[in-house]
Write a structure and sequence with these properties.
- The protein is an alpha+beta fold.
- It folds into two domains: about 100 residues, no CATH class; about 240 residues, Aspartate Aminotransferase, domain 2 (3-Layer(aba) Sandwich), CATH 3.40.640.10.
- Helices cover about 35% and strands about 15% of the residues.
- The strands form three sheets. Strands 1, 2, 3, 4, 5, 6, 7, 10 and 11 form a nine-stranded mixed beta sheet that branches. A four-stranded antiparallel beta sheet has the order 12-14-16-15. A three-stranded antiparallel beta sheet has the order 9-8-13, with no helix packed on it.
- A hairpin with a 2-residue loop joins strand 8 and strand 9.
- Helix 6 runs parallel beside helix 7.
- It starts with a helix and ends in an 8-residue tail after the last strand.
- Bound molecules: pyridoxal-5'-phosphate.
- Pyridoxal-5'-phosphate binds next to helix 4 and helix 5.
- The site of pyridoxal-5'-phosphate has 14 residues, from helix 4 and helix 5.
Length: about 375
């Protein structure tokens, strides 16, 4: 039997059949209708309302961050978080080549240049050792800043992304950041409910961001949040994302260039209902990951990706990784699984291969390039194994 045939047989055994199984689907089994109706009945649907404050408080409590600021989406959250970390036009920001395009786009929106870095096979996220070796070659720490000697630009921040919910080596990256005066800003869009050595992802960096897009662990339709443990940065995040208008009973003035990125109360109401179900979603996702781990254990030439040691992953998007040398079997696996009704997909096209980022600086990317040809994401919705 080919790997593709083995995979389909294993998916049939693990997943409830028949019928198409989506990659990820939202689950609205709680107070969603009640809270939405409350918004409509009260008239508070837009940019002000009690659900926004409540959602922010619940996010802060759940993650352990001092402050959470809800915004329109995860990309906007990252753009503002990077600006607050000091990124300005002309800077470089280190981001993984293996990520969703939003990570690099947020950098480019600020007029800065993404600088692509390689991944670690053990976490799928940024590799601190490879980054340290690269910086030793191209960068120099001077007056508390990190200068790229090849481009002459200031390297301002590092943005690790917790791929598919699996925590990256945060301590390793923090050491590299400390050595070079780089700000650590976590793209935790995929890792709500994931913990690195017992501490929630998104609480290590100076700032971090979450996403509540329709395919994420919880959804507000569209939405995102900025997390920080710094009270002043939290205050500024709220200020910048609400048009930078100083509070005043009637005066309408703005003290800097702000954004209208506030999450509407309607979306926040959905978020409050989803937060009540988050622990149950996480339990189900873990149960599904365990079922995959067992069901896929016998495959020849591929392994189910498990959470890195010392970490607890939310298993947002389950992944099968083909062994090195098995790249040619990726497309047959995708074809066979999708044809059998199990939606699977490969990893994102690597950032340095996208037309708008082809000319950006980067290190050698052997691991990201290898992983990109071997990753296959599996159906992961919270309703699959109830
Ligand atoms: C989902 C996601 C985002 C944010 O996406 P939005 O759709 O803007 O909320 C950012 N980075 C990564 C890695 C993501 O997966």
């Amino acid at each position: 039997m080919s790997l593709a045939q083995e995979l389909v047989a294993a998916l049939r055994a693990v997943l409830p059949g028949p019928g198409p199984v989506a990659l990820h689907e939202p689950c609205f089994a709680g107070n969603e209708w009640k809270y939405l109706k409350d918004c409509l009945d009260s008239g508070w649907v837009s940019s002000v309302g009690s659900y926004v404050d409540r959602f922010e408080d619940e996010l802060a409590r759940f993650t352990g961050a001092k402050r959470a600021v809800a915004v329109v989406n995860g990309t906007a959250a990252l753009q503002v978080a990077l600006r607050l970390a000091g990124v300005t036009a002309g800077d470089e920001v280190i981001v993984p080549a293996l990520t969703f395009v939003a990570t690099a786009n947020a950098v480019a929106y600020l007029g800065a240049t993404p600088h692509f870095a390689d991944s670690a096979e053990a976490t799928l996220g940024l590799d601190p050792a490879a980054l340290a070796r690269h910086l030793a070659q191209v960068a120099v720490a001077r007056d508390g800043q990190c200068l790229n000697r090849q481009t002459g630009r200031v390297m301002r921040a590092v943005v690790p992304m917790h791929v598919f919910g699996h925590p990256v080596d945060l301590e390793g990256l923090q050491r590299v950041c400390d050595d070079y005066g780089l700000a650590l800003v976590e793209d935790a869009a995929e890792s709500l409910g994931s913990y690195y050595h017992g501490r929630h992802t998104g609480t290590f960096g100076r700032l971090a961001t979450l996403s509540f897009n329709g395919n994420k662990t919880i959804t507000t339709g569209g939405g995102g949040a900025i997390l920080t443990n710094d009270e002043e940065l939290g205050r500024l995040a709220k200020h910048l994302t609400t048009t930078a208008k100083p509070p005043h009973p009637w005066a309408y003035a703005h003290d800097q260039l702000g954004y209208n990125y506030r999450l509407p109360n309607l979306n926040a109401a959905l978020g409050c209902a989803q937060m009540e179900q988050l622990p149950e979603f996480l339990r189900r996702k873990r149960r599904l990951a365990e079922a995959y781990a067992q069901g896929l254990a016998g495959l020849t030439g591929a392994r189910f990706f498990r959470e890195p040691p010392g970490c607890q992953s939310n298993y947002w998007l389950n992944a099968l990784i083909l062994d090195r040398g098995r790249e040619a079997e990726l497309t047959p696996c995708l074809e066979a699984a999708n044809q059998a009704g199990y939606m699977t997909r490969p990893a994102w096209e690597l950032m340095h291969r996208l037309p708008m980022y082809r000319a950006c600086p980067r290190m050698d990317l052997p691991v990201a390039e290898s992983l990109a040809g071997r990753i296959l994401n599996l159906p992961s919705g919270p309703r699959l194994l109830v």
